[in-house]
Design a protein that fits this description.
homodimer, alpha/beta, seven-stranded mixed beta sheet, two-stranded antiparallel ribbon, 13 helices
């Protein structure tokens, strides 16, 4: 297998298989090496109406010997549903795709999640390749094999753990990413820095102070590769999220509550994660695990990334707290938080008192 | 773990886990040992309107400390669809079932397949237990983790490989099984005898000559356990059907074509398999692999089981052959047959000439 020049390769090792994540510049034009082994198979490429016009032709040119069909979904989280899934199934069945066919997901997290889920369930599982085009999907969603669709009553309620054959990350695609989405992706990058700590955290801190934009390829390439490496390391140890992998939910307990409360309309996922990260650090401070200076540091990083980190006016903090606690009271479930002592020292905690949670939310609130 | 007296236990070993299959009499009343480890969890039992009135209360009594909710689906292959699947999801989400909940499938293959698929995809996978109540599900569908629903354009097109935590087979449930369904189940038993050969084949031959009915518990218990053991052995070696496991499709290439041609209305699956088994042996004879006497033997066994084995009047043999060959011509797919030299000596073959296939079908036709 010949690899594009200067591309990073991270191998994700799971119980069932090992697959490569390539991170490089111009990989869309130079990714034929990925398809070589799969050349004789039938391929269905799934994308959305925003990404397809930008990159689909480029990708098709890179795989000239492959018989490829395309399916273009509408763009947006609200289309990560049964209707879109059925469209993929229908296309596969109409086209008489067999078990040795494969799918390509070209797009952001929505396209990746739904295509992965279709791959995991069509004829009890066919191969698929992730080609993420948003920063958020590149550093997080495309690696690790979590697939899902949303149910009207809950996000990602239907899904599977199903690993791709390969992940191809072309950082050049970030050049066309709307700025708001790029910034939202930086929230997940900051999450990885908090999880990993060390020089990665310090370097990112500095880079954010200097400013990172989507055309800083030489900064972004190693940054994305590092996030993928951290994730791969966690997934290797706990593919099905029975423990360790839950650390990747740092900031997400808050983020999900915020997203639900606003019916997923107010924020991009990464934007909600930004607020969630700040809340998680603040809660860690309140519980005596972390120093206040860490909360200030994280707030500064999020600001530098252009991300709001306070719970904004318009959100009823009491209601937010009740919502989180209500979930906790159901059956034996306990509301689980990822807390941290310092960058690189995160842990799970299911024993957060309601009072401290509320204090945290009030403190994170930007109003008054 | 205390096991019911005189129950067989077969362990199914797969890459991800190992689980027990219990085969015994009165297990529905005495299966609390299966649930002991799961006692604190939330349980949703899925059944159908035929089986639920007969056995649901019995089972609920056996698990008094478990908080159990029930969902009763309509009975029939036509309900193994997205609508039924959604009913399970809705019930799970409405009831706020968590990732540590589990499902119980109480019924035949349809209930087992759809419940298993729901379990494999709800919140990326929760546990489930199979409690099959038809002979076909007991000897075949409930063991090995194949889950599925039908797509309007194809049977079992959407599904997964997802192993249960346990399979509980109470042979007493066969006493209420309609005779036609019992006989259909015997077709799969004969399939296992052909796959395995040896004394199992000889003994079954004799037992069928003497007549087996649904109340012959002492005959059925070891028979079912043996089929499960054969299947477990194959699944252990090839869980995801990349090779060996395809042998379990003996007779099924024909059966599927017959079922499709008749829009799944004319036969129970096992009845189509009966004809398929006869055709597979006949084709093996025609290709010079098996002796004609084997075809006669198999025909005799199927007759003794009360199963028609000839392609009946009303089926257009030309059309059947065209249908099978058409499938073959699509893309690189080849029509794969399981052939045999003798009981216990089966193999895969993708090189059957159309002419011989047609001759076989004509010879298996009962008309003229």
């Amino acid at each position: 297998m010949v690899k594009a020049n200067n591309a990073y390769q991270i191998d994700v090792i799971t119980g069932e298989n090992t697959y490569p994540v390539y991170v490089g510049e111009g990989l869309l034009e130079h990714c034929s090496f990925v398809f070589e082994q799969l050349a004789t198979r039938q391929v269905l490429m799934v994308s959305n109406e925003t990404v397809a016009p930008l990159y689909m032709d480029k990708l098709l040119n890179a795989m000239p010997d492959v018989e490829t069909d395309c399916l273009i979904l509408k763009d947006g989280e609200q289309y990560k549903n049964f209707t879109s899934l059925q469209k993929i199934y229908d296309k596969l069945i109409d086209g008489r795709y067999h078990r040795d066919s494969y799918l390509i997901a070209l797009g952001g997290g929505v396209v990746g999640d739904i295509t992965g889920f279709a791959a995991s369930t069509y004829q009890r599982g066919i191969a698929y390749i992730q080609i993420p085009t948003t920063l958020l999907a590149q550093v997080d969603a495309s690696v690790g094999g979590k697939t899902a669709i949303n149910h009207p009553l809950g996000k990602n309620m239907i899904g599977s753990f199903y690993q791709p054959e390969a992940v191809v990350i072309d950082v050049n695609t970030l050049r066309t990413l709307p700025e708001r989405e790029f910034k939202a992706g930086l929230a997940e990058v900051i999450k990885y820095a908090l999880l990993h700590g060390g020089t990665f955290f310090d370097t990112l801190y500095q880079q954010l102070e200097e400013g990172i934009d989507a055309s800083d390829i030489e900064v972004l390439k190693p940054l994305i590769a590092k996030c993928c490496r951290i994730k791969a390391d966690i997934v290797r140890q706990d593919e099905k999220e029975t423990g360790l992998r839950a650390l990747l939910n740092l900031g997400h307990t808050f983020a999900h509550a915020l997203e639900t409360l606003s019916a997923y309309k107010r924020w991009l996922h990464g934007e909600a994660v930004a607020i969630g990260l700040y809340c998680a650090v603040l809660l860690s401070v309140k519980l005596g695990y972390a120093k206040l200076s860490l909360a200030e540091k994280v707030a500064h990083m999020l600001s530098c990334a252009g991300l709001a980190y306070k719970i904004p006016v318009g959100i009823d903090v009491e209601q937010l707290c009740d919502k989180m606690m209500l979930d906790k009271k159901i059956k034996d479930k306990r509301l689980q938080f990822v807390l941290l002592e310092a960058p690189g020292a995160c842990f799970l905690n299911s024993e957060v008192p309601e009072r401290l949670l509320k204090e945290t939310l009030i403190e994170a609130f930007e109003g008054d």
